[in-house]
Amino acid sequence: MANSTLDDSPVDATTWRDKKRHLWLLGLIPPTAVFLATGFIALMNWLRDVLDWGWLGTVSPVWWWIGPILIYVLLPILDVFFGPDGQNPPEELMERLEADKYYRYCTYAYIPFQIASLIFAAYLWTAGPGGRFGDLSWLGVEGGSLGVVSKIGLAFSIGAMGGIGINTAHELGHKKVSMERWLSKITLAQTFYGHFFIEHNRGHHVRVATPEDPASSRFGETFWTFLPRSVFGSLRSAWTLEANRMRKIGRPVLHPSNDVLNAWAMSIALWGVLAAVFGWQILPFMVIQAIYGFSLLETVNYLEHYGLRRKQNERGRYERCTPSHSWNSDHICTNIFLYHLQRHSDHHANPTRRYQTLRSFDEAPNLPSGYASMITVAYFPPLWRKVMDKRVLAHYDGDLTRANLQPGKESKLLAKYGQA
User: Fold this and answer.
1) Residues of the chain with pLDDT under 70
2) What is its EC number (predicted)?
3) Is residue 156 part of a domain?
4) pLDDT, tens digit, for every residue of 213-241?
5) CA gap 187, 115 in Å, rounded
6) Would you say residue 69 lies in a domain?
7) Which residues pair with 328 in a beta bridge?
8) pLDDT value at residue 1
9) How far apart are CA 315 and CA 317, in angstroms?
10) First-to-last CA distance in the chain?
11) Whole-angstrom distance, CA of residue 356 vs CA of residue 379
């Protein structure tokens, strides 16, 4: 299922302009979504009082779920509406485009909005009559405090921001600039997933599309089986990688320069300060947002390499990672929100390449829709298998023995497709 939407016609480098240059600022919608939702709620509650339309007050709390609405409804619709991206930058302009600092500032800007939204959410979770910071009567919220369903919705929205923030951290964590690598850890602090910084760069990129990689899903493996395998496998991998590095440089494993430990310390500090200021009552919602946030990342991990496998030579060494070892999608809307993460083959071939220069390849296997749409499909294993299994089979010209099969299911899978 190669990319048939890519425009391969010659491009004049002297006249080429990045049509997405200003669209990258739309990537700031997720970290500001809670502020936008609060504005909508205040407006609807005000209209409820002015027009005496009680139903507006009943409907307005739906906006606290703006994060899941964005991921499961708006982005898939926009992907279908706006369709494929289909354009690569001219090779002659790559160096100049890579050096243009505007693009990196777009990713930096995510972080202050992310932190401000998290602090604002902590206030919303605890605000109420008699509270340290007053109630929510200024928002027109009846009773002055959010109901439990609204608080949970807000936690999921903050988790969506944290999950997309992990992608921002992913972009920054691959760079050689020390400051950007620290910004990556700061972005991961919200979801308590700082070890991703280690495991992804030094674990996943080495073992991608092999049975040994916890973050590469296997043919026949459901998302719900993959999720705990990837979460705990990646945690174990990150700790092992960093412990080995510490031993090699002659330092104790339990040392402040251990990048897993100092990343987790950032989470403890962030969560601790918020709990000290707003109260322990925020902690259940912090846990909800963290779990939802990193589960979004793991859903994307699941669909990026499903069933794909690198060949081994006679010495057991894996072939070099190529564009054929990642599932791509080039839908422009999700491209904007995930900084070209969907051009995943080029990312694996060139991990330090900045997002604005990532290319779509003809020969890379392509998903039928954008990542945002495929996240929902991944939650339903029968639907996922119906959509994806035939694509894996076609990718390997019908030879399923070349795929990364789920251990224990090999015979059943091969028999199902007539290859036992």
Assistant:
1) 1-10, 419-420
2) 1.14.15.3
3) yes
4) 999 999 999 999 999 999 999 999 999 99
5) 9
6) yes
7) 366
8) 53
9) 6
10) 25
11) 30
pLDDT of residue 418: 75
For residue 378, the model assigns a pLDDT of 98
Q: Are 188 and 277 in contact (CB under 8 A)?
A: no
Q: How far is the C-alpha of 152 from the C-alpha of 377, rounded, in Å?
A: 23
Distance CA 110, CA 29 (A): 9
Contacts of 14 (CB under 8 A, 6+ apart): none
State both tokens at 341. Answer: 């993460």
Position 261 scores a pLDDT of 97
User: Which pLDDT does position 405 carry in this prediction?
Assistant: 96
Distance between CA atoms of 88 and 86, rounded to whole angstroms? 7
Residue 41 tokens, joined? 């709620």
Helix (H, G, I), strand (E, B) or coil at 328: strand
Burial of 239 (0-12, 13-18, 19+ CB in 10 A): middle
Cα 3 to Cα 329: distance, rounded to the nearest angstrom:
8
Residues 226, 216: Cα–Cα separation, whole Å = 9
Q: What is the DSSP letter of 203?
A: I
Helices (H) and strands (E) in the chain, counts: 19, 0
| Per-residue pLDDT tens over the stretch 314-335 | 888 999 999 999 999 999 999 9
Range of the domain at 148: 23-386
Beta bridge partners of 84: 331
Supply the pLDDT for residue 361: 85
The count of domains in the chain is: 1
Instruction: Determine which helix (DSSP H) or strand (DSSP E) holds 403, and give its type and residue range.
Output: none
For residue 197, tell me if it sits in a domain: yes
Residue 293 CB neighbour total at 10 angstroms: 26
Quote the distance between the C-alpha of residue 33 and its chain's center.
16
| pTM score of the predicted model | 0.93
DSSP assigned state of 25: G
Q: Does the residue 17 lie in any domain?
A: no
Do 168 and 110 form a contact (C-beta atoms < 8 A)? Answer: yes
Q: Which long-range contacts (CB under 8 A, 24 or more apart) does 265-269 make?
A: 266/185, 266/186, 266/188, 266/189, 266/194, 267/188, 267/189, 267/190, 267/192, 267/194, 269/189
- CA separation for the pair 368, 373 (Å, rounded): 9
